[in-house]
Amino acid sequence: MKIKCPKCKEDADLSPDFSFVKCGSCDLDMSYGEYVKFVAHNQATYSDILGDYAGSTEGQTAGSLDEWD
Ligand SMILES: [Zn+2]
After folding, report:
1. In the sheet where 2-4 sits, what is the strand order?
2. Ligand 1: centre distance to CA 52 (Å)
3. Which of 15, 20, 23, 35 lies in disulfide reach of 5, CB 3.0 to 4.6 Å?
4. Are 6 and 28 in contact (CB under 8 A)?
5. How many domains does the chain have?
6. Is 36 within 8 Å of 43 (Cβ atoms)?
7. In this structure, how many other beta carbons lie within 10 angstroms of the beta carbon of residue 45?
8. 3-class SS of residue 65
9. Can you give the pLDDT at residue 45?
10. What is the sign of the dihedral through the CA atoms of 39, 45, 48 and 54?
């Protein structure tokens, strides 16, 4: 299925068994577990950067990231 590439923001492919993610637009190729961590980390980073600017962080908490480390 198509998901959003966390690197280049183009369409990436998530394998039907949720085992890996690949993107044809960049060289992204990682397991789904790594993808989830990657996205979680990026969202936390963006929330920090855009916190005051966007005002729509959808209630994400910084503490939730600890579970992935
Ligand atoms: Zn990509």
Report:
1. 2-4, 11-14, 20-23, 29-31
2. 27
3. 23
4. yes
5. 1
6. no
7. 11
8. helix
9. 76
10. negative
Structural domain including 8 reads 2-68
Asked whether the whole model's pTM tops 0.70, one would answer no
* Residues with Cβ–ion distance below 5 A, ligand 1: 5, 7-8, 23, 25-26, 28
Task: Give me the pLDDT at residue 22, please.
Answer: 97
Mind listing the pLDDT tens digit of every residue in the chain (69 residues)?
A: 999 998 999 999 999 999 999 999 999 999 999 999 988 888 777 677 655 555 555 555 555 555 556
Please tell me the predicted confidence (pLDDT) of residue 46. 65
Distance 21 CA to ligand 1 centre (A): 10
Integer Cα distance of 47 and 2 in angstroms: 24
